[in-house]
Every structure is written in C-alpha cells, then in structure tokens.
From TrEMBL:
This is Uncharacterized protein. SUPFAM superfamilies: NHL repeat, RING/U-box. The gene is KNAG0A02800. It is found in: Endomembrane system. It is a peripheral membrane protein. CHCR repeats lie at residues 584-746. It holds the Pfam family Pep3_Vps18. The keyword Calcium does not apply. It comes from Huiozyma naganishii (strain ATCC MYA-139 / BCRC 22969 / CBS 8797 / KCTC 17520 / NBRC 10181 / NCYC 3082 / Yp74L-3) (Yeast).
Length: 933
C-alpha cells in the first residue's frame, strides 16, 4: 500500500485577505469540501468542480465570539454550526453553494437552534445524523437530545441522561445492532425488533444487551470515537478498540469480547497523546501531535508513520482528521493548512490477510485485484470449502481460477473425496461447466472448448451407466423409483447441456463417446439436435423401422440424404418411399435412377410381378408434372415398360402410347435395341416407323408374320411422300401375301384371286395388276387375274378417253388465244386535244409520251421518274441498269428495251403508286363549295 500526504491549496482564502491560522473545522462529505474559520466564514467546494468556491458568513459577536465546530451529514445537505458562546445553528450546504456570488455575511439559510441553546450547560460534543432532517447530539453532561429540523423552529427533545458524556454512537439497522461508547463504558444493544430506531431505544431506556468497563482517558482528545458504516473505533486509556457490527462474531456468545484492540504499548513511542482518529475499511488513522499513523486492522501493525511539517520546515500543529465515507477520501488539517491523505492500493495490503482470516468473500470484493491475486483467493476459498466437505462450492471457486490447471483441480477433488463418489462427479461437472461457460464465446479457445465439453459428456454417460447398473441390481421398489427419477434428471440435464453448449461440441468426438458407452437414446437425441439426418436415418434403418426413417428423411428436406438412402428404403418400403420422394420438389430423379433400377430388378424377380411398379409410377408422375429434358429419365421409363411388357396386349399398347407422347425425348436407338432384345415386335416396328426405317420395319413385320402391323405401317404419312418406296414396300408385302412358305406348319392355301383384289384395293391405287404380273409364278392361272386385267383395261380405256378430251380442249384454247392476239394488234386510243400528262399536268404532245390501256398518259421522262420513286425494286433496277449502259456507250440505242420496261404497268393504277397511300389529299375549296346543298 502506498500512502502520500499532499497539501491542499487554499489560495482563494488568501485572495480574500483572510488571516491564516484560523481554520476551526473541516468536513468532507459526498465529495463536498466544507471548512470553517474561527472568524465565522464557511467555505463549500464541490470537488467535482474545484474552481468554484462558495462561502457563507455566520454572524458572530465581533472580538469575542468564534466558530468552534461544524458537523455535516453524510449527504452534505445540512451543516450544524457551533460557536464558543454555546450557540448552535443549522445551515443548508446547498444554500451555500447556490448562494455563490451573493454578498456574504447576510445570514441567508442560517437557522438557529433556539430550543437547544435554552438547555442549561449545553456543550455539544457528539452529533449523530439520522437523516437530513434529524440528528442526535450529546453534551458533556451526558444529556442526549433529538433535534428535528422539519419545522421552521427546530424542536429539541431530551431522549435520556447518562452518567457521563458519550463519545459516539454506531447503529446497524439491517442487523438491529447498536453500540454507544461513554468515557469508561462500552454498551451494546441487540435489538430484536428491527423497527426500533436508536431514538426509541434511548428514549425508552432499554438496557443494553452487554456492556463492558474500560479505563477512561487521562487526557483530553478532540475525538475518541469514529465509525464508517457498521465499523467503528474507540480510544481508551489501554488502547484503541475497533470492530464491525456486521461481523459473524456478534452472532455468538460474548459480543463485545469479539472486538479487537490495539494496545497503546504496541504503538511507536511518542511524546504526544492520541488527538484524533478515523477509520477506513481496513485501517485506523491516528493523529498524535503532528504525526499521522495508519494501522492495519487485520494485523494490528503500523503500516504508515509520518510527521507533517509546515512551510518553515517545523512540525505542523495538526488539529484533526476527517473522512468522506461515500468517496473513501481522507483528510487532516491544522489551523493554517489542509492536507489530503491519499491511499493507493489498500486492497494490496489486506487481501492476503483476509484470506488468512477466512474472509474470502470480503477479499474478493476488494477493488484493483489482479488476476493472480483473484485466482489465489478463489483457490484458497475452494480449499477451505473442501475441508468442510462442501465439494460443490469448492468446485465453483476452483472454476474461477485461471492460473491453475483444470486437471490438477479435478484431481484434487477426486483425491480428497474419492472419484467414485456421486458428490465428486457432481462437483467435477460443476467445475468443468463453469470453466466452459467462461470460454464458450472465445473464438480462439476452440480446443479447450472441445476438451471440456467432451469431458462433461463422458461424465454424463458415466453417471447414467452407473445408475443403470444400480437399477439392474436393485430390488427395493422405492429405491428403483428414486433411481428412475435420478436418471430422468440426468437425461434432462444432459439435454440442457447439449442445447446450451452445442457450439462448443465436436460432433465426431461426442458421437464416439456416447457410442462407446452404448447410450443409443442419447446418441439419437444428439443426432437430432445437430440435425445429423444421416445418422438418424441410419439408426432407424438399422432398427428396420422404415416409417421413422422416412419421417426423419422428410423432416430434414435433405436431397443428399434422399439420394444416399434411396436404395434400401425403396426396396424395403417402396410405396411409402415413393410417396416421400414426391414431396421433394427439388430432387433430381437422375440420381435416383440407380435405386429404381435395383428395385426394378427385384420387382421382376418377384412371383408373377405382383403389385405395382412404384419406380415407374414415380417416373411417370415426374414426367407428367415437370416435363424434364434428360433423356435418361425417359429411357428408364421406357426400359421398365418394355422389359415388363408382353404379358398381354394392354402393356404393349401402353408402351406405344407412352412413346408417342414422349416423341423424341428418349433415345430411340436405345429403346429400339431393348425392344428387339426382348422381342417386342410391335414396339420395334413402331420405333422403326418413327425413325423412318420403313424397309427394316417391313422386313421385321414379314419375318414375324405381322401382316397387320405391316399394313398399318404402309399408311404412314411420311411414307406417302415417297411413292417409289411405298410401291416397293407394297410389292414386298404382296409377294408375302401371295406366296407363303410351304414349310410353315400353319400355312394354309391362299385364294390368289381374292388376295390380288385386296392388295389393289388396300393400296389405294399404288399397286395395279400390271405391277403384280412380274411376281406371279408359272403356276398362276389366267382365271386368277382375269377380272383384275379386265378392270385394268377398262380403267386404261377411260383414261385414254379423258386424255383425248383434254387435247381437244387445249386446241380450242389455242385458237382463242390467237384470235385475241390479232385483235390486240388493231387496238388504239383516241386522245382529246389539249390532253395533259397525268404526272406533270402539262401538254402531252410537247414531248414523247406513252398512253396505257387504262387511259392514263405520261411523258416518257415523267413516267421514268414515277417508276424510280416507286417501290417496285425489280423494275427500278432494270431501268437504272439500262441508264448506266447508255451512259457508258452513247451508241447503245436499244430504245425498244426501255419502252418495254416503261410500258410494263401504269404508275397510277398499279402497285407502283402504293407509296402514295399515306400522302395528304388536297382538295380545292371551290370544288368543296360545289357540293354544298
């Protein structure tokens, strides 16, 4: 602890020409610095704003009356003033501060205590403030008065009269304890009724619970009793008695016997007696002459001893000490100067002593402790708890130690109480949990987090297993019930632990710990907590609980888990699995195809393929709903249909319908190979036809004797676009129809005549009898083909007659055309005199012109301009090319070519004039008026 005494500058007193050597009293309360001069001037300074000094003059009788003492309440609201004429006043400290700048000496806010002054031989030595409006005062005669300042004229009530004057009073309202010190007696009251105040105790004359006699002082002292809160110190002839009303010793037998005492002989030698004293939380300040001593209350040792010297380097005559109890600042003053006693690091001087005395809680409450000191106190406190077999409290203390390894602390708990003890495990858990609490939010403490959380997890598993073992061997029903309750509590605690410290856990480590301890329920709970869908599903699959597996899969909405477990779930619970798949809207069916194919293989091996192929059901649903583009999806669906078809015609028709609906989305070659491999003739023929492999389709039809499919194929619209190939295929089919293999078992005699008729009719004229003649063999008789030959010749005759009629018609048309040509050569147009050009509206005959059959006439140059401005690009380009050739060769005079181009069409009544549709039409006003009615 470092102690320094600093001089307080009072230059403002000198500036106001106040005489030095007249400081009578000093009080510092609630950071308000109040001191009074014997001349009656009182100064008040708010230490938060030390530059502002307020003052107040107490009216005194000039020359003889002096100010002797001031008593300020703890809140620095009121001040009691005493003069040597036994006059007493109450002054508001706030009035002094707020009255700054006003003319001093006016007596504003000064209230005389007239009723107290009227008391005979009233020499007040002690003032004990109850609150801002009431205080107890004691005189040298032993009279104790209660002063109430709530009225304009404060009242004065005599509470009691003792044998001699009291030195001081301290009261602990919370515990109902009070001590009053007289010159030779120390009295203690243990007030059971907490509502009783010191006033009522003294007024009712309640006898003290204990009292003890001491030798009175043989000399006069400024003050012999001081207190701070519940702590106090009292000077006797034998030494200084001090104690704390809040300490535990007052709960036991001899209350006053638990007080401590600093003997006078233990103090350093000095020619001076104790003049004043004050206390802090852990030290006693003693003033002996000009020397200030500070004594440690815990060790009774002097920790500071220094004499104060004045400006002339002579020992200062110190008047007294004072303390600001709210701010814990200490002061001393002489008649000339004020000094501040500054304590730095008081906690450093007492923390270890408090530990030695077992006051660990008080030691931890000290300020300015460093981490090592804090750890030491907590460790010693934990050790003390262990000696008292309070392992849980010890663990909480140990958890506060950061400088001691966790392993050593856990080892100490186990060695002192046995590692199999339930209390030991609980204490270890508390230690580890508290340690984890402190680092759980530190990003740089990941490894300790994992170690601690894993350790705690292992302890939980160990505790549960021990409880299970006890349940297996226990026969007492009541104990079994208790064990079940204990396990339930353990499980709830473990679940709470996992939820709270989930960010600190390493999933793989926790899995391994729980799995090694065979705690399946806890393992499943943890997997659900961390949303480890794979583990949950794997667990239920291992239990063959397909419902729970699918339920976990659906709740997770994890596509990866869907793909991972699709195979086993589809095989064992096909309908429910497919129903679950349909709820995964973002699932990729391509990744599910291997599982569906595995299922389909098993489905094909089942007896008679009982039940529905749910894999195809899913694909069909997906295709219908999402219209995917991946060919593999369609190929898979086709594969399932083709390899599962053939048992009846319905399946084949279903496949063909699906293939027609899917059009080109599947791999045609792949499906064709499948149909050929599994001998699905109808499907193969359909695919050949879709792929326009008509020759291969016909070959397959004839090879499989599927005449119906061959005829159906020949009706294909694409085949009708190629008459030659259509005819070739019909001839191939006709040859098959007319002649069958005699070696076939089911071959029957063919009605050649009817067959020929059917072929010609069904081919719709593609095949005629003449086309069939080359394929007839030598055994075909004329009787078989006579009817068709006659019909063919009749058709040929009709055709020739139609051709003859057409020739005559064309010759007639030729004659009409020649007649029209001759008439056109003689055609002419009559022009009226003065006719104008329809373009420039000038006289037509002035330049070369052309007249059209429609009656419009134009100058040649005007007509060329019109054509060049039109939208007939072909005609424009021809005229422009002619002009370019004419410009290059002046001799180029093929004017007939230009005229033929110009006379192609009229530029007014043909499409050349289409660009003028958007032009405005201007009408002469005179013409408009002609139409008015």
């Amino acid at each position: 602890m470092e102690v320094t005494i600093e001089h307080v500058q009072l230059d403002f007193v000198r500036d106001r020409q106040q005489r030095l050597g007249h400081i009578a009293s000093l009080n510092v309360c609630n950071d308000i610095f109040v001191f009074g001069l014997k001349t009656g001037q009182i100064y008040a300074i708010d230490l938060d704003v030390p530059s502002k000094v307020s003052s107040f003059n107490v009216p005194l009788v000039e020359g003889s009356e002096k100010l002797l003492a001031l008593w300020v309440d703890a809140g620095a609201s009121q001040c009691v003033v005493k003069t040597n004429f036994a006059k007493y006043y109450v002054l508001s400290v706030q009035d002094i501060i707020q009255g700054q700048g006003k003319t001093p000496g006016q007596g504003r806010g000064l209230v005389p205590l007239r009723k107290l002054v009227k008391q005979k031989h009233c020499d007040v030595r002690v003032v004990f403030w109850l609150d801002e409006t009431k205080f107890i005062c004691s005189t040298t005669k032993g009279d104790i008065f209660l002063i109430d300042m709530q009225t304009s004229d404060p009242s004065c009530t005599l509470l009691t009269n003792l044998d001699s004057a009291i030195d001081g009073l301290v009261y602990d309202r919370q515990r109902g304890r009070m001590i009053v010190a007289m010159s030779h007696t120390l009295m203690y009251w243990d007030i059971k009724d907490k509502d009783l105040s010191p006033v009522e105790v003294l007024q009712r004359g309640i006898p003290p619970t204990e009292q003890e006699k001491f030798e009175p002082l043989q000399y006069d002292s400024r003050r012999t009793f001081v207190f701070k809160g519940s702590k106090f110190a009292w000077v006797t002839d034998a030494g200084i008695i001090y104690g704390d009303l809040a300490q535990e010793g007052f709960d036991q037998g001899n209350k006053l016997g638990s007080l401590k005492m600093i003997l006078s002989m233990e103090l350093p030698d000095s020619p001076h007696h104790i003049k004043d004293l004050t206390i802090s939380d852990y030290h006693v300040f003693i003033l002996r002459g000009p020397t200030v001593l500070i004594i440690n209350q815990l060790s009774n040792k002097v920790v500071f001893n220094e004499t104060i010297y004045n400006d002339e380097n002579q020992p200062e005559k110190i008047v007294g000490l004072t303390v600001d109890q709210t701010q814990s600042t200490f002061w001393c003053f002489s008649s000339r100067n004020v000094y501040e006693i500054i304590l730095k690091g008081e906690s450093k001087a007492v923390w270890k002593l408090l530990c030695e005395q077992g006051e660990y809680g008080e030691a931890l409450a000290l300020k300015d402790l460093n981490s090592w000191e804090y750890d030491y106190i907590q460790y010693q406190r934990g050790t003390a708890f262990m000696k008292n077999s309070d392992l849980l409290s010890a663990a909480k203390c140990f958890s506060e130690c950061s400088s001691t390894s966790i392993g050593s602390m856990v080892l100490q708990l186990m060695q002192d109480s046995g590692d199999d003890s339930q209390d030991t495990t609980t204490a270890v858990q508390a230690l580890l949990t508290n340690k984890l609490d402190k680092i759980m939010h530190s990003r740089d403490r990941v490894v300790p987090q994992i170690l601690l959380s894993s350790w705690i997890t292992w302890n939980f598993m160990n505790q549960m297993n021990k409880k299970d073992e006890l349940m297996n061997t226990e026969k007492d029903q009541e104990k079994l019930t208790q064990l079940r309750d204990d396990i339930s509590i353990l499980k709830a605690d473990f679940q709470s632990f996992l939820k709270r410290y989930l960010p600190c856990l390493d999933n793989d480590t926790v899995y391994q710990i729980i799995l090694n301890q065979n705690r399946k329920a806890e393992l499943l709970y943890f997997a659900n907590l961390v949303n480890d869908v794979d583990y949950v599903i794997s667990y239920w699959i291992s239990q063959e609980n397909w419902y729970e597996s699918l339920k976990a899969l659906q709740s997770s909405s994890s596509d990866e888990s869907l793909y991972k477990y699709s195979n086993i779930l589809l095989i064992n619970a096909p309908e429910a699995t497919v129903a679950t798949w349909m709820k995964f809207k973002a699932a990729d069916p391509v990744k599910l195809i291997p599982s569906m194919l595995t299922y389909f293989t098993k489905y094909q091996k089942s007896v008679m393929n009982q039940g529905t192929n749910v894999a195809f059901t899913y694909l069909e649903w997906y295709i219908d709903k999402f219209k995917p583009k991946e060919p593999i999806i369609y190929n898979t669906a086709s594969y399932m249909l083709i390899t599962g078809a053939g048992r009846d015609a319905v399946d084949t028709d279903k496949v063909i319908d699906l293939l027609e609906k899917l059009e080109s989305k599947f791999d045609s070659h792949f499906v064709l190979r499948l149909s050929l491999k599994y001998k699905q003739t109808a499907i193969s023929i359909h695919l050949f036809t879709q792929m326009k492999f008509f020759k291969e389709a016909m070959d397959l039809c004839l090879a499989k004797n599927r005449i119906d499919l061959a005829k159906k194929m020949l009706t294909n619209e694409d085949l009708a676009q190629d008459p030659a190939e259509l005819k070739s295929l019909w001839l191939q089919l006709s040859k098959k129809l007319l002649y069958t293999d005699k070696n076939l078992e089911n071959s029957q005699a063919i009605d050649v005549k009817q067959t020929i008729r059917s072929i010609i009719q069904e081919s719709n004229g593609v095949i005629e009898i003449k086309d069939l003649l080359p394929i007839f063999d030598e055994f075909t008789t004329i009787a078989n083909i006579k009817d068709e030959l006659i019909k063919s010749l009749d058709d040929h005759s009709k055709s020739m007659q139609q051709i003859s009629q057409d020739i005559r018609k064309w010759l007639h048309m030729k004659d009409e055309m020649q007649t029209d040509i001759e008439k056109f050569r003689e055609r002419y147009q009559i022009l009226e005199p003065g006719v104008s050009c329809d373009s420039c509206h000038r006289i037509l005959q002035t330049r070369k012109f052309l007249v059209f059959p429609c009656g419009h006439c134009f100058h040649n140059d005007c007509l060329i301009k019109k054509i060049l401005l039109s939208n007939d690009f072909m005609l424009k380009s021809q005229i422009e090319n002619f002009q370019k050739r004419l410009a290059r060769d002046k001799k180029y005079g093929q004017l007939t070519e230009l005229e033929s181009l110009m006379t192609t069409k009229c530029c007014l009544c043909s499409d050349l004039n289409i660009n003028t549709l958007d032009n405005l039409v201007t009408v002469n006003q005179a013409d408009i008026e002609k139409w008015s009615l």
